Amino acid sequence: MSSYKNSQNFVNAVQIARQYERNRDAMIIVAGACQSHFEALLRAGANFASSPARILIHALDPLCIAAKLSYTSVKDTISMLDIMDLTVTGLDGLGGVETRGSYRMGVPGIQHTDEHA
Description:
Layout: H1 7-20, E1 30-31, H2 38-44, E2 48-49, H3 61-70, E3 77-78, H4 80-83, H5 90-93, E4 95-96, E5 99-100
Parallel strand pairs: 1-2
Antiparallel strand pairs: 2-4, 3-5
């Protein structure tokens, strides 16, 4: 682990976040950066992490994963195999565990008003 410059900081951040929310579907964590210690990030509680093959990843790869999860219904699950085509580096750059989407649709459009204003 000491061979990876910032991985310990990422692991610590994931562990602290998981102290507040243990459920991997209630809080989705995409962690790491280029050449991160992938296995340690997943053990710490990340849903998705970089970099299984210890390669440089594209800066937008984690964003593509986060966007896909945020617009996937809570009724559906996403695996890395479902989204690897959305990334530049594919399974060498990012990996993870099956995770529920986080999008909830309200019908009809719900207006939020501040009754105390």
